[in-house]
Amino acid sequence: MRRLSDAFKLDEAALRFELKKSGGGRVKPGSLAADNIAVTQRAESFPEERDLVQLLLLFHGEIRPVFSESNILASFEDPEWAELADIILAQPEEILKIPGELLGHIEAKTLREKTSSLLLVDDKEALWGNPLEAFSDLVREKRRRVILRKIRKLHHDLTVNNSEDEIGYLIREIDRLKKENTLLKGAQ
User: Fold this and answer.
1) DSSP letter string over 122-151?
2) Helices (H), the chain
3) How far, in Å, CA of 7 to CA of 10, rounded?
4) Interval 144-159: pLDDT, tens
5) For the ranges 77-91, 104-118, 153-167, which has the lowest average pLDDT?
6) Mean pLDDT of 45-54
7) What value does the mean pLDDT of the chain take?
8) How far is 37 from 31, CA to CA, in rounded Å?
9) Cα angle vertex 120, ends 114, 122, to 5°?
């Protein structure tokens, strides 16, 4: 409990009170972060989005400019991760330096829970190594996954279309996306 209060710059007694109030049972020391991360990862459909938001949270000074410049937020498919990224990007640097302050600016409970689980990292440098390199890798993988989803949809569209013009267009579009995917794959 002390680690959490120190990490989030919160009063330890207030934190204990909130835990009891929320119906939280007894928690073994050191297991809360691991449990939160494990549950989040199991339920996650968009791991790159989660990881991109975590990088934005943990390395906001380095990642914020490249995050905005990359326009990767436009390809987020999970509305909660997109909203959380928007909230983080809208915060001044001073707020992002103090996790408790940031959590106070997030209204939705599910987004606060996601933020908390992303912030509970003992050694962010060990987890991510070079954050800019990790960001580039995640952006590339996210773009590849978006392309693969589009290709699957176009393959499905091929099965239901009878028009020669439409079939020709779909085949050309699939070919174009496959080439784009190959280029992204080769950039690794």
Assistant:
1) S-HHHHHSSHHHHHHHHHHHHHHHHHHHHH
2) 2-8, 12-21, 31-43, 47-58, 60-70, 79-90, 93-96, 99-104, 109-119, 124-128, 131-160, 164-186
3) 8
4) 999 999 999 998 988 8
5) 153-167
6) 91
7) 81
8) 10
9) 155
Q: What are the C-alpha distances in Å from 166 to residues 87, 159, 176? A: 41, 11, 15
End-to-end CA distance of the chain: 41
Q: CA-to-CA distance for 100 and 83, rounded, in angstroms?
A: 19
Above 70 in pLDDT, residue 22?
no
23's tokens:
């119906």
Q: Locate 64 and state its tokens.
A: 């914020």
d(CA 5, CA 21): 16
Cα–Cα distance measured from residue 170 to residue 158, given in angstroms and rounded to the nearest whole number: 7
Which two three-digit tokens encode residue 170? 């779909």
Q: What burial letters (b/e) apply to 161-181, b meaning 16+ CB within 10 Å?
A: eeeeeeeeebeeebeebeeeb
Residue for token pair 């972060």: 33
Residue written as token pair 């209060």: 5
Q: Which residue reads 């693969």 in tokens? A: 148
pLDDT at position 164: 83
Encoded amino acid at 72, one letter? I
Looking at residue 42, its pLDDT comes to: 40
Can you give the length of the chain in residues? 188
Backbone dihedral region of 88: left (phi > 0), alpha (psi from -120 to 50 degrees) or beta? alpha
